[in-house]
Structure formats: structure tokens, C-alpha cells
Amino acid sequence: MMQRRTWLRAACGLCAAAPAWAHASSELGPAPLAEWSRPERFPKPELSSDEGGLWALMDREETKVRRSPFLMKDPELLAYLRSVANKLAGSHAPDLRVYPVRTPFFNASMAPNGMLQIWSGLLLRVDNEAQLAAVLGHEIGHYLQRHTLQRVRDLKDKAATSAFIGLFGLAGALGQLALAASIQSFSRDHEREADIIGLQLMHEAGYDLREAWKIWDYVGQEMAAAHGGGSSERSLFASHPPSVERSDKLRQLAAACGGGVIGQEAFEQRLAPHRFSLMEDELKRGQYGMSLVLLDKMLARDPRSADLYFFRAEARRLRAAEQDRELALQDLQQAIQLGSEPAQAHRSLGYLLQQQDSSKAGTAFATYLQRAPDAPDAALIKTYIQEGGN
Length: 390
Ligand SMILES: [Zn+2]
Hints:
- The chain has helices at about 10-15, 50-65, 75-90, 120-125, 130-145, 145-160, 160-185, 190-205, 210-230, 245-255, 265-285, 290-300, 305-320, 325-340, 345-355, 360-370, 380-390; strands at about 95-100, 110, 115-120.
- By secondary structure, it is mainly alpha-helical.
- It has two domains: about 10-20 and about 30-255, no CATH class; about 275-390, Serine Threonine Protein Phosphatase 5, Tetratricopeptide repeat (Alpha Horseshoe), CATH 1.25.40.
């Protein structure tokens, strides 16, 4: 039996059903969506079935993720992410396992066996818990509708299965198909369905639906910066192509359903200990146009962060397009004026001044070494100081 849960509920009924953690003054509007039934929990499939084979593959993947050095082990962050995912998953929560992974791309993925990966590039880009819930709700939507299995079956039909099995054997053929499915995007219909279910899950968990379109809209802005810069950065959002149509649709649906939890402070608190190192990862991607869109957004929200001015200066210094040097110098001055700049801000200043004013560059490098005597690049920076003095 399917557990019937109608998507259309009276506003007053929803308010009464709002979970205890929801802000008392939040007023939830009506549910946005057509009728949908949350399926019952999925039993572990027979290993001999295609679904069982898919789960077994994902179990092996999960073992790798669990052992990965990139797994983020902060217990508070993990507990927080689990709690957000569990609120959204509802009755399916016992089947979910959450893995935050340190990798600087905007992505989350929910495997058919219940493995939910949340990549750190996503954590860096959402403004609050409701935006995170929008992305996770979408992923859990794919899971609840078993879209990956459908995708594998579609591919299997198309791919002349017998030829595949001949080549790889039964298990190998399934592996090849799952691999093909995982690197292809979901169909537009699946994407739309996951968007709508994601909104419904957000609504049931008491989140403000108006945050959902904002994150997709933002993702579109980063994409535009990437393409404007002539780069092929599609990979950042490969499995979930954003579109104007998508954020417009979500905006319309959410308009009638305002209110609910946004959760900015809680989110920022959990992420704060990681933000600096995640920004370092972000710059290592070498996609400075996108990083600058991100940093502009973060600075608009947090205009007194010396760290963020430093990183924006770094993005510009490393990109070195027209006017980048001057703008980077301005940002470094701003960081230093705020008085809480990281030691690396002085190193950046040194690099920027190196060609023009070796004495000032030397002073900046010396300040860096004074502040960070054990820095891994200390020996290199010392040579710069010596060269500058000659
Ligand atoms: Zn999707």
C-alpha cells in the first residue's frame, strides 16, 4: 500500500502540523503542488534483480566515500546536515546516510541505496538552511521517485542489452550502464519532478519555499560568468543544468507559499569553521570568473569579512585581467583596514607590488613571514625578500 499524503492541504492544517523546531511566528501558506504520494520505504532489493545490482554497486561506491580522505569529519557539521536531510526525508530518514565531501563543486547526489553526498562547493554557495534544503529536497525527490533506476532501465532498453552482457557479463553490463547513467543528466521530466517534490518536502519540513528559486537563479549567474569568460565550466553543474525556466517556475510556485524557516544563522555557524579552507579549495579550481561571482555575493552578505576581501583580491590577482591588479590592491587595503586580515593578505600584497615597488613588496613579504613564520612557502618568500634587497 502506498502511504497517501496529499499535496493539497488547507493552510490552517499545515500550520497546525508545522514541526516543533519551526519558528513559532512563521506562517506557512498552502502546499504548492498537485497530488503526490510519498512512497513507502524501499526494502533492500534482491541482488539478482537489476535494482539489487545497482544497490550493490552503490554500496561499493559508498565504502570508497566512507574511506575517502576528502570526507569532512566535523561531527557538528555532520549532525547538522543529517538533521536537515532527515527533516526532508521524513519517513525515509532511517534509510539515508549523509556524507559531506570536500570537493569544490556545486553538487549533491542521492544514490538509490540511500547514500547522500553533499559536496563542499554546494555548502559554500548556499546562503542559508532553506537553500540547502531546496537542493537536498530535489535530490531526495530523485530518490523517492527512483529516477536513477528508471534511467538505468531506459539505457538498458536502448543499449541492446544482450550485446552489453556479451561484452561485460551480467554484473559488468550493469556497471557500465550505471556508469553511463551517472554521467548523463536526468531527463527534463525527471528534473521537473524532482524540483516539485523538493518544494513539497521543503514545505512539509517547514522551510521558506522562496529560497529555492534564489539558489538556482544564483547558479545561473555563475554559469553566465563562466560562459562570458569563454570557459567550459559546465562540469560544475553537469548533472543538474540550471535554467531560467527552472528558477521562474519555482518562483511562481513559491510565491503563493511564503513563510517558513530560512535558517541563516544556524547554517553560517556550522559552516564558519570551514569557510576559509573551502575558499582556498575554490580558488584552486582556477575558475576565477565564477569565484568572483561567489565572492561578490558573500561580501554583500558579510561586508566586514577581511577574509572575503583577501580571497576576492586573490581571485583577481590570479586572474590578472584588465584592472584586476588595481581592484585587488583595493580589496587588500580594505582587508587590512578591517584589522582581521589573514597573514596571506600581506603575501598577496607583496606579489602585487613586486614589479613596481620592491621595497614595499619586501615589507609586505616580511610582514607575512612575521605573522606566519612556519608557512610552507616561508623559504621561497625569504628569497623574494633577499632579491628585492639587492
Ligand atoms: Zn536533479
